[in-house]
């Protein structure tokens, strides 16, 4: 959607329209899947924030790689630390505990 619109209306407007369309569609879907308008809108707000962050990265052409790397490193570090004790082999089982037991 972004590529086809950008050929005719310019990158900024094309990004705004395509990001808005994606966020709207995903938010609408999630309201039904999560059975909660508040949760669907909350997820949509977070997704809109990510699209805004990506726009900032794309706009800063010379520093996009540096800024993306500096943003991604703490995010991946947090995910690694939060999931270090998770038993990935037991995630699909019905007896999988909500909180992993400490050894």
Structure description:
The protein is mainly α. 71% of the residues lie in helices and 0% in strands. The protein is built from four helices and no strands. It has helices spanning 2-9, 11-33, 37-59, 64-82. Helix 1 runs antiparallel to helix 2 (11-33), helix 2 (11-33) packs antiparallel against helix 3 and helix 3 (37-59) packs antiparallel against helix 4 (64-82). The radius of gyration is 19 Å and the shape is flat. The termini are far apart. The model has no long low-confidence stretch (mean pLDDT 87).
Short description:
The protein is mostly helical. It is built from four helices and no strands.
**Biggest sheet record:** none
| Helix share, percent | over 70%
Overall pLDDT metric: 87
From the N-terminal CA to the C-terminal CA, the straight-line distance is 50 Å
Helix-strand pattern: HHHH
How would you sum up the global shape?
flat
Structural class: mainly alpha
Please count the helical segments. Answer: 4
Low-confidence stretches: none
Number of strands: 0
**In angstroms, what is the radius of gyration?**
19 Å
Beta-strand portion reads under 5%
Helices and strands, with pairings:
Elements: H1 2-9, H2 11-33, H3 37-59, H4 64-82
